[in-house]
Amino acid sequence: MFKPLKIYIGLRYTRAKQRSGFISFISMTSMLGIALGVMALITVLSVMNGFEEQLREKILGMASHVTITEYQNSLKDWEGLGRQVESSESVVGWAPFVNAEVMLSANQRVSGGLLRGVLPSKETAVSDIASKMTVGQLSDLNPKKFEVILGHELAKHLGVGMGDKVTVITPKVTPTPAGILPRLRRFTVVGIFEVGMYEYDRNLALIHVEAGSKLLRLGDGVSGLRIKLDDMFRAPWVTRDLVKFLTPNFRISNWTMEHSNFFKAIKTEKRVMFIILMLIVAVAAFNIVSTLVMVVTDKRSEIAILRTLGFTPSSVMGVFMVQGIVIGVVGTAIGTALGIALALNVETIVPAIEHFFQVQFLPADIYYISDLPSKLNSSDVITIASYSFILSVLSTIYPAWQASRVNPAEALRYE
Questions:
Q1: What CA–CA distance (Å, rounded) separates 353 from 32?
Q2: Does the pTM exceed 0.85?
Q3: Per-residue pLDDT tens for 382-392?
Q4: Can you say whether residue 358 is alpha, beta or left, with left for phi > 0 and alpha for psi between -120 and 50 degrees?
Q5: Are residues 99 and 14 in the same domain?
Q6: Where are the beta strands (DSSP E) in 198-335?
Q7: Which of 187, 244, 191 is CA-nearest to residue 211?
Q8: Are residues 185 and 78 both part of a single domain?
């Protein structure tokens, strides 16, 4: 079906000027439509890949891969448990923590937040917080003093800086002769961090784990252990392994359980976006149908001459399929090249547009990530280009089949 003669004639039809400029215009429109659709699809999927990866890194840079807590809300022998967990395969670090939802007050301003007690010498093994410090150091937290490190947005909201006092109010109460009073403590700000994720920068406050245990009256205990793995995607398997040798009074969770709905939602959005943008490619590809139908009508006499010279119906069909496939291949190639170029440079192009027009596409107080990341996957490019090519081929079948059914006698009767 694809012998050199058919390819040669098909390419000549593609390059030749049509009697009607409208046919050439539709061909060009189809080609540009395919190119724009492929370019948009590659760029959007690359941005969504980058968004998912960066979001996962930011979340897991602060959260843990695996978390172990005790049902009694106070884990006493956390050091022994840590040594026991450390011997498990895939575990590269662990750290104790204390968690509590609190109110923070300063300068007549109040904000809810998450208070997390950490052990600075161990925390660096499970999170990236030490590298996110903009003022002070994580190691500045003193176990004998009540000191706090605030997120950048939280410190800004409270109007505090280094050395200022912040009052932490816990949900637990203390009975006094004057009645039931909330438990509170004044902390000194010794550092500020900025993760780049509004949820943490606005709501998280860090204190030393010993200060947290005193504040929440956990004695020598902690809320639990945070564990980091060499491969985060092994978390479900490691969780099952830990369950086997830990007693039933422990509760084990991992990031896939705590954030599963969030990442499933992102994957669903990617799938829906792929389908929607693929429809743009499909519309452009099926414009090839109208183009080839008009070409067949325009070339009826030439088809008849080819048939009288010995061309079979399948040969005629091959000629017009070549013409449609060329439109699809060229459009796909142009779109793929433009999509790759745009996806690789979107992190530079978008800030330039924002600066030029004085706008911000992703405000930090609304979106989890304020910049527009991009990650180009070769598998996505191959999939998109393949679907575009297949749609182009399918679009040529009907008009090419119509060309193969042209009756030479009928076509040449009035020529």
A1: 24
A2: no
A3: 999 999 888 88
A4: left
A5: no
A6: 204-208, 224-229, 250-254
A7: 187
A8: yes
